[in-house]
Design a protein that fits this description.
Distance between the termini: 26 Å
Bound molecules: zinc ion
Radius of gyration: 29 Å
Structural class: alpha+beta
Number of strands: 18
Oligomer: single chain
């Protein structure tokens, strides 16, 4: 087990640890207290900390059972958007508006915001326990809206257990290697962009035409491509185009489970974060908007090209504009876990709204190669037999069967190999 190193920085004090043998350090509490808008959520009945419970849409005290309903979904309030001006960015609210602390991983650098009362010692992004606690940053922008969790921690563990055991290509004991209770409800940062992109285009479009020609005393036909100029205009509207706000979770993994129902977005209320960890953005608004614009340009280009009368297009040019651009910073619900297998870190991610799951799983190559060998052996055997009998003079049938089996075996083997390769992609 890796041990925490004592931080050499001054101003850190040892705080309570939930895991034996692990020391946890936190910044020495500051004199004076927190900013006035920061709230802390404790149970009004018993004073214990309360946490958001997805299946009840309420804040619940695990100590005395007190419940506070928290559902603004029926009201459908208009969530305001920000325009792209320096003032709106400068004026935007900052901080979480709830007493939080930051957990900085000394291994991968992830900075996660966690409830003050939480005793967490492992990083959900790399599994390391070299973490340092410090006061939450008040510099980061405050989220504008979020999708509350619908999947409960218990459901997330059931889904994860099923998924971990769903492939024969991986190790059988995987669900034991991955501590299911390590699946942490985590809000991940996203930038949501809206814009209208009027564009006009011009291109040469190819048409296949049949041409008659005279050759050696007879008429023949051949096809040729005739290029004609075409032009058109489109006006695409983008609503809440989501761009990742963090690099801590693999882009590929996130893209596989990004089917969020965005009508469920509610205005940010710090109570939704009670008992749940959240990651602030590490990709800035400017960087994300660059990516968002590139994606909109790409999609607008495709819309233009689809207007051409055939699919053969050359010398394409497009003039496009961005109008009514707005942005907002949103939090989306996920369950995250990472585990280490033979020195490598594997991430597992679950969509906290609909339960979609994806992740990396280590491949048991011994098992995969054994299956491939078994698949190829009948074909090889029959082909060999066929060859031997062919020499004797009766082998054509046996050899033919062997060849067919071999081809089938190779095809299935290639599919299995590609699947196994894809199992730990990230
Ligand atoms: Zn209570
Ligand atoms: Zn980490």
């Amino acid at each position: 087990m890796m041990m925490n190193q004592t931080p050499s920085m001054q101003g850190y004090v040892r705080v309570a640890s939930a895991v034996e043998g692990i020391e946890v350090f936190a910044p020495r509490p500051k004199e004076g207290g927190a900013a006035p808008e920061v709230q802390n959520f404790t149970c009004p009945q018993c004073g214990a900390s309360i946490a958001y419970q997805p299946d009840l849409s309420s804040l619940t005290c695990s100590h005395c059972g007190y419940q506070q309903k928290l559902d603004v979904r029926d009201e459908k309030p208009q969530i305001e958007q920000h325009e792209f001006t320096v003032e709106t960015v400068e004026k935007a609210a900052r901080g979480w508006a709830i007493a939080r602390k930051d957990l900085e991983c000394q291994n991968c650098g992830a900075v996660v915001s966690i409830p003050v009362e939480e005793l967490t010692h492992t990083c959900s992004f790399c599994g390391s326990n070299k973490v340092i606690q410090r006061q939450a940053s008040e510099e980061i922008l405050r989220p504008k809206s979020l999708i509350p969790f619908s999947v409960t921690p218990k459901q997330s563990q059931e889904i994860a257990a099923r998924w971990l055991g769903s492939s024969w290509m991986t190790y059988r004991n995987l669900s034991q290697v991955v501590r299911l209770e390590a699946f942490k409800a985590t809000y991940l940062p996203y930038w949501a962009f809206c814009a209208v992109t009027p564009a006009s285009w011009r291109a040469e479009v190819g048409h296949t035409e049949t041409e008659r020609y005279y050759d050696h005393g007879e008429w023949k036909e051949r096809s040729k491509t005739v290029w004609r100029w075409e032009s058109g205009s489109v006006k695409n509207r983008y609503t809440d185009l989501l761009i990742d706000g963090t690099r801590r979770v693999s882009k590929l993994l996130l893209s596989r489970i990004k089917d969020f129902t965005l009508n469920s977005l509610v205005p940010y209320d710090p109570r939704y974060l009670a008992g749940i960890q959240a990651l602030a953005y590490d990709i800035t608004l400017e960087k994300a908007w660059e990516e968002g614009r590139a994606e909109m340009r790409d999609q607008t280009r495709k819309t233009c090209i689809s207007q051409a009368s055939t699919s053969q297009v050359r010398n394409f040019s497009m003039q496009m504009d961005f109008q009514d651009e707005t942005w907002r910073y949103v939090l989306l619900p996920f369950y995250l876990s990472s585990f280490t297998h033979e020195g490598r870190v594997f991430q597992v991610v679950l969509n906290g709204q609909n339960g979609q799951i994806t992740g990396q799983r280590p491949v048991d190559w011994n098992k995969v190669w054994l299956v491939i060998a078994l698949l190829l052996s009948p074909g090889l055997l029959f082909s060999m037999l066929g060859l031997i009998t062919l020499i004797i003079g009766v082998g054509a049938v046996v050899g033919g069967i062997g060849l067919v089996l071999l081809v089938i075996g190779v095809v299935i083997s290639v599919i299995i190999y590609m699947q196994a390769q894809g199992l730990d992609d990230a």
